[in-house]
Amino acid sequence: MKNIKGLLPVVILVCIVFVTIQARVIPVKPVENNDQKEKNATNDSLQKASMSLTSAVERQLTYIEDHIVSAAEAMPEDKYYFTPESLNIQGSAFKDVRTFAGQIKHLATDNYDMWSAIIGDPLPAGIVDVNGPADIKSKDDILNYLKGSFAEGHKAIANLTADNAMDMLDFRGGKLARLDLVFYALTHSNDHYGQMVVYLRMCGILPGMNLHNN
How many domains does the chain fold into? Predict the structure, then answer.
């Protein structure tokens, strides 16, 4: 009995040391109240929504960019100022339509106009109307202008979030939600890609994904 009483302080000391070590090794997770849990869940949801929104729009822009740039590169430079009007197709209505080069310059100019409005960037020098800078004339210069407009689009999309998607922006004398302007830019590019396809086929060139398959 006397020996047991003598060991008791040692046992107590060992227990205290063990508990202290465990407290240092195993971190204690703070208890979240309901408000904090809801806040964290909301933040997680917004982050996932922003990532989903941005990646979805980015895929759409990349897809149409690939097609448009491929089509613009496929047209020979000596046909860059071709218009269907020159074919004099009986019963057609191509009078005063834009040239192939004009289609690209207009598309790129509107790209700059819309994507720049989304992030507040200034427009490139030389833009005075929807037809783009008058001094951009060669195929190489037009292609660089086009690619630059899509780079502005990727920059704008990188700043698009679920939180700011419905912010109202000033655009051409009115107000548009940021996401509406994004969709406007994408559909406008698709519209002019369709017209570029017609021009290419009239020149005997297969457009779109056919360019990558042949």
Answer: 1
